[in-house]
Amino acid sequence: MDEGSREGGEQSFLYEPLERFGEGLTTSRPWNLSALTGVERLNGRAAMLGFAAALLGEQLTGQGVLGQLALMLRWLLG
Prior knowledge:
Elements (H helix, E strand, L loop, with lengths): L22 H4 L6 H29 L3 H13 L1
């Protein structure tokens, strides 16, 4: 007996209906827009904090992002 079938040829699972290429990106779906707004706001704030931390680290060390990573690796590996 095949893995996705039962006796009588009935499948034990259902596939989602086929979509044309790119259709899922343009169709309206029932998203919770208020929750997405809050998540996007939090994501933006975290990105701003990360950017500010990178600028502060550059001011303190005089190194760019890759230089800071190299300094951290040298410090960790000792």
